[in-house]
Design a protein that fits this description.
The protein is mostly helical and 79 residues long. It has two helices and no strands. The protein has one domain.
Amino acid sequence: MSATPPNVRLGVLVAHEQWHLQAMSLAIGGQTCTAEQCRATAERLDQLAAALREHAAAFPTEELAPSETAVIEGSAGNE
């Protein structure tokens, strides 16, 4: 059995953190989250940001033409 490619692992991590953030948004809105939960979520976001930066570093340094990129809803410049 082959190892899971890094981009697939990152995609799963992003999806998992999306789920976690959705749960946190409900807890924050409902005033049921704790300071520790907020700190832990901030740490998770720091780790996710580092993983995304590492993934981005693997891309070529030249910019892709707009026709070569995927549009991600809610991303910068796409609001």
